[in-house]
TrEMBL record:
Organism name: Chryseolinea lacunae
Keywords, sorted A to Z: DNA-binding, Sigma factor, Transcription, Transcription regulation
RNA polymerase sigma-70 region domain span: 15-81
Highest taxon listed in the record's lineage: Bacteria
Family assignment from sequence similarity: Belongs to the sigma-70 factor family. ECF subfamily.
Protein name: RNA polymerase sigma factor
Gene3D superfamilies per the UniProt record, alphabetical: 1.10.1740.10, Winged helix-like DNA-binding domain superfamily/Winged helix DNA-binding domain (1.10.10.10)
Keyword DNA-binding: yes
SUPFAM superfamilies: Sigma2 domain of RNA polymerase sigma factors (SSF88946), Sigma3 and sigma4 domains of RNA polymerase sigma factors (SSF88659)
Lineage: Bacteria, Pseudomonadati, Bacteroidota, Cytophagia, Cytophagales
C-alpha cells in the first residue's frame, strides 16, 4: 500500500487480487446480494485509490481497508434507504432461477437456520460476528476497525453470539 501511496498504481491491482474475496465475503454476509457485494468491493478499491494519501503505514493495511469497507457499506445503505426502491424485478432477482432454488433446497438445514438467525440480528451484531468468526479478524484489529477497545470487542462478540444462539433456538422451535 505504501507503493500505491507513492503513485505506483500498478500495485493496487495486486492488493485487489489479494483482498477481493475476503471483502466480498464480508459484504455478502451483510447483504446476501452477490452483485451488490461485487460493486461494494470495487467501491472500496476506488476509495483506497482516492484516499491513498491518507494511509500512514503505521497500522495494518487490512484494518484500514475494512474501515473503508464499513463506510462503503453504511454509505450504500444510507443512499438506498433514501431511494426506497422495491421493484418487482428486485424481488424476482432475489428468488432466482429454478436451478438456484433447487440448489438452495439441498443446503443443510442447520446452515439455513444459522443464516436466517444471522439475518435477524441487528446490523452491528451481524457485522462484529462476520469480522470475528467469518473473516478471522483478531479482536484488536476489529477494535481498530470499529473504533473501540479490544475489551469492548470481546463484549460485543460475546453478546452477539448470545443473541445469535437465542434467535437460532427460536427458529429451531418453529421448524
Amino acid at each position: 500500500m505504501l507503493k500505491v501511496k507513492d503513485n505506483d498504481l500498478d500495485k493496487l491491482g495486486l492488493l485487489f487480487e489479494r483482498y477481493k474475496r475476503p471483502l466480498f465475503g464480508f459484504f455478502y454476509g451483510m447483504n446476501k446480494d452477490a452483485e451488490l457485494s461485487e460493486d461494494l468491493v470495487q467501491n472500496v478499491f476506488l476509495r483506497i485509490l482516492k484516499y491513498r494519501y491518507l494511509f500512514r503505514g503505521e497500522g495494518d493495511f487490512r484494518t484500514w481497508m475494512y474501515h473503508i469497507a464499513r463506510n462503503v457499506n453504511h454509505d450504500h445503505f444510507r443512499k438506498d434507504k433514501l431511494k426506497a426502491k422495491d421493484s418487482l424485478e428486485n424481488w424476482q432477482e432475489r428468488l432466482g432461477t429454478d436451478e438456484n432454488r433447487s440448489t438452495e433446497y439441498q443446503k443443510d438445514e442447520e446452515l439455513q437456520l444459522l443464516s436466517m438467525a444471522m439475518d435477524r440480528l441487528p446490523e452491528d451484531k451481524r457485522e462484529v460476528l462476520l469480522l470475528s468468526k467469518f473473516q478471522d479478524k483478531k479482536y484488536k484489529e476489529i477494535g481498530e476497525i470499529l473504533g473501540c477497545s479490544e475489551g469492548a470487542v470481546k463484549v460485543k462478540v460475546f453478546r452477539a453470539l448470545q443473541d445469535l444462539k437465542a434467535v437460532y433456538r427460536e427458529l429451531e422451535k418453529h421448524m
